[in-house]
């Protein structure tokens, strides 16, 4: 019983790390640029395909392809911000939502066209290996993904708190107008924010590839959880999104274990409803932290 | 300022809902105009093929469309429908987008726009149930390989030439005794029409077959992580696992079993287990895994011939559902031949009166097609299959087995 419980917590924590990478990206863009990026999951998908093709064509380990997928998606993020998001920032909510939602539909369908709907998997030497601790097992690929995800989140936190650019980002998130008066260039800050958010999505994709199949609709599996985590953890709060993601991973896993395998999400959404009813601004409150 | 920000998300959530619906409508409308009304040669006969070519079932749907085209080409190359002056079949494909709402409108549109003599579709039971309702109302015959037993209830225009979900269950249970004398079975199934009907069939018939079910667990299709589910299987002490799942979930389940170091025999039944992509995705881990199919490419000489033609064109073997719908196309052709008419009512009556035991139309396990009053082929039975050296070989029942069971 204790073993089962511990195993459920381990499983939940590990998948929560992946939810975190996706939700941190969403919350970062929302916090800084004030736009909800519905296409975040599709950038995870792109990260997965980058890793898949590097592995299939050149035999590059998906973990090493992090060094390709992250910079590539950073550049994509800067371009998306510069050529798309920047143009609708002054137009209000509706065009912004249409923009990112259209981007999501476009990316899914382009992927269907280019890559077909086939499921693509990568076999790595560690894909099916697990570390056994007594009766508990920890799948190696997921453990690595979790470790890298936590390291990247930590790096982002340090970046936001101790670099000028990071501080400028937090300033822009708190009050865009005042930040501009202080000499912060919003275009630059926004471009970096979207770039970093997409780089995290790319990292999530590469980290998923050793244990999750890639297909054009894969982003939608993760983006729903990411949105819940973002709301739970307070919109725009990076640390909040991280903690909420881990909590949700564990809640889902415990729900599957002790309520029913079709009820994992019920527990998660119950958590969301309760939070919204009791603490409407999310569990953690406040601005970009 | 702060308050406005904080109230934003729920509103945006509602907008997203709205957007999803709007976008769905736009896409559907696009599909309408994307399919040009084909110029119909005076002598050609429209038959409909309803398959999900986009969305979550897209991958299998595309394989079905390929097979449907191949089948129509075979009928036409052999001289078309002789009783109608050698009229050629004209296949009209509608994309169901893996969506039940789209299925309803597309089926309606196909029937009213093209007046097909008969229809086949839709792979996924959830979609076929909808399409068959629409076809019933329009009084157009529908042939399907979908296995849900519901398709045989209160319907007069729906015909199922292949074994039903409840028959799959029996075969799967019987097969488990080939592997272990005292099978303790864990059943995990996606909570869809397909998953529920298949798993209920298993549960109801297990006692009669002397099989103990130690875990009976529904899960939401589209897993992010199979770890928790496999954790439950492990805790149940089962020595045999029956997952009732489509491909993406199956890959995660098999991998989680390997990661957990679980020693357990796996019989995946039907669905995602018996398509070429399963092996491509799971790789060597698929060797020795068991499944049940309503059709397999090695069941007889005709099937092997069609399989060779398909393999030459598409580079992989003809999978269960696609092979079955080649036979269905020939059943429709036979019915048209008998009816000597393209009137859907007459074609329906001809299908109901069919009794074939040779040729491509009879290329089914059981080797004979004759429909009962509920639209079931009374001779249909499933076959047990096993992944052996990257190929799917028929191993059960004895009369159909082409190779011996590979014991691990």
The CATH topology of chain A comes to ABC transporter involved in vitamin B12 uptake, BtuC
Percent strand of chain A equals: under 5%
Taking the alpha carbons of the first and last residues of chain A, their distance comes to 38 Å
Which spans of chain B of ≥5 residues are poorly predicted at pLDDT below 50? Answer: 1-42
What is the distance, rounded to the nearest whole angstrom, between the alpha carbons of the first and last residues of chain B? 66 Å
Order of helices and strands of chain B: HEHEHEHEEHEHEHEHEHEHHHEE
The main β sheet of chain A shows up as: 2 strands, antiparallel
Low-pLDDT parts of chain A are none
Counting DSSP E segments of at least 2 residues, the number of strands of chain A comes to 2
Determine Rg of chain B (CA atoms, Å): 22 Å
Query: What's the count of strands of chain B?
Result: 12
Summarize the helices and strands and which ones pair or pack.
The complex is a heterodimer of chains A (289) and B (408).
Chain A: H1 2-33, H2 40-58, H3 66-88, H4 93-115, E1 130-133, E2 136-139, H5 140-162, H6 164-174, H7 176-181, H8 186-208, H9 218-232, H10 238-258, H11 264-278
Antiparallel strand pairs in A: 1-2
Chain B: H1 2-34, E1 45-51, H2 58-77, E2 89-95, H3 100-114, E3 118-121, H4 125-138, E4 142-143, E5 158-159, H5 165-179, E6 184-190, H6 193-205, E7 212-219, H7 227-236, E8 240-244, H8 247-260, E9 265-266, H9 276-282, E10 290-293, H10 301-314, H11 320-339, H12 344-353, E11 383-388, E12 391-396
Parallel strand pairs in B: 1-2, 1-3, 3-4, 4-5, 6-7, 6-8, 8-9
Antiparallel strand pairs in B: 10-11, 11-12
Helix pairs in contact in B: 2-11, 3-4, 5-6, 7-8, 8-9, 11-12
């Amino acid at each position: 019983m204790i073993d089962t419980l511990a195993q459920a917590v381990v499983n939940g924590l590990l998948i929560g790390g992946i939810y975190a990478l996706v939700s941190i990206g969403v919350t970062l863009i929302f916090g800084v640029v004030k736009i909800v990026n519905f296409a975040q999951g599709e950038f995870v998908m792109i990260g997965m395909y980058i890793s898949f093709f590097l592995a299939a064509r050149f035999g590059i380990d998906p973990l090493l392809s992090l060094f390709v997928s992250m910079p590539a998606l950073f550049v994509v993020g800067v371009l998306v911000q510069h050529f798309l998001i920047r143009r609708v920032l002054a137009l209000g909510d509706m065009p912004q939502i249409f923009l990112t939602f259209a981007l999501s539909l476009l990316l899914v369908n382009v992927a269907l066209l280019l890559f077909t709907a086939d499921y693509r998997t990568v076999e790595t030497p560690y894909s099916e290996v697990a570390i056994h601790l007594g009766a508990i097992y920890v799948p190696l690929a997921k453990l690595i993904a979790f470790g890298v995800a936590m390291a990247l989140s930590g790096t982002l936190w340090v970046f936001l708190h101790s670099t000028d650019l990071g501080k400028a980002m937090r300033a822009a998130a708190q009050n865009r107008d005042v930040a501009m008066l202080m000499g912060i260039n919003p275009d630059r800050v926004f471009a970096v924010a979207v770039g970093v958010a997409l780089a995290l999505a790319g990292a999530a994709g590469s980290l998923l590839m050793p244990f999750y199949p890639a297909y054009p609709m894969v982003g939608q599996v993760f983006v729903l959880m990411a949105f819940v985590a973002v709301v739970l953890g307070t919109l725009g709060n990076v640390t909040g999104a991280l903690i909420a993601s881990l909590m949700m991973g564990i809640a889902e896993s415990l729900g599957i274990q002790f309520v029913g395998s079709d009820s994992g999400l019920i527990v998660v959404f119950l958590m969301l409803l309760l939070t919204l009813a009791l603490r409407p601004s999310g569990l953690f409150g406040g601005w970009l932290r | 300022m702060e308050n406005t920000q904080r109230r934003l998300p729920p509103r945006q959530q509602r907008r997203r809902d709205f957007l999803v619906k709007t976008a769905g409508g736009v896409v559907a409308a696009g599909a309408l105009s994307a399919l040009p009304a084909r110029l119909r040669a005076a002598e050609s006969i429209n038959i409909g093929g309803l398959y999900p070519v986009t969305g979550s079932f897209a991958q299998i749907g595309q394989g079905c469309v390929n097979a449907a085209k191949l089948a129509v080409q075979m009928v036409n190359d052999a001289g078309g429908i002789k009783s109608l002056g050698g009229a050629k079949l004209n296949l009209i494909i509608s994309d169901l987008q893996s969506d039940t709402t789209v299925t309803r409108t597309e089926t309606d549109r196909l029937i009213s726009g093209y007046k097909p003599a008969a229809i086949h579709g839709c792979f996924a039971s959830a979609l076929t149930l909808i399409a068959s309702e629409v076809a019933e109302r329009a009084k157009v015959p529908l042939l399907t390989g979908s296995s849900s037993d519901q398709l045989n209830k209160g319907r007069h225009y729906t015909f199922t030439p292949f074994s039903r979900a409840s028959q799959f269950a029996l075969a799967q249970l019987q097969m488990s005794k080939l592997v272990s004398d005292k099978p303790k079975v864990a059943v995990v199934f996606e909570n869809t029409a397909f998953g529920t009907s298949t798993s209920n069939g298993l549960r109801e018939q297990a006692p009669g077959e002397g099989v103990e079910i130690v875990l009976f667990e529904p899960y939401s299709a589209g897993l992010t992580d199979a770890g928790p589910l496999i954790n439950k299987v492990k805790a149940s002490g089962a020595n045999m696992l029956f997952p009732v799942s489509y491909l993406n979930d199956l890959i995660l389940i098999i991998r989680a079993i390997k990661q957990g170091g679980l020693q357990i025999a796996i019989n995946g039944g039907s669905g995602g287990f018996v398509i070429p992509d399963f092996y491509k995705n799971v790789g060597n881990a698929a060797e020795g895994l068991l499944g049940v199919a309503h059709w397999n490419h090695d069941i007889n000489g005709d099937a092997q011939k069609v399989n060779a033609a398909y393999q030459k064109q598409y580079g992989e073997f003809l999978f269960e559902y696609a092979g079955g719908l080649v036979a269905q196309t020939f059943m429709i052709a036979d019915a048209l031949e008998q009816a000597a008419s393209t009137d859907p009512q007459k074609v329906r009556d001809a299908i109901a009166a069919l009794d074939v035991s040779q040729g491509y139309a009879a290329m089914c396990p059981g080797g004979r097609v004759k429909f009962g009053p509920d639209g079931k082929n009374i001779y249909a039975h499933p076959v047990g299959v096993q992944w052996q050296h990257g190929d799917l070989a028929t191993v059960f029942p004895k009369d159909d087995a082409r190779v011996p069971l590979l014991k691990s």
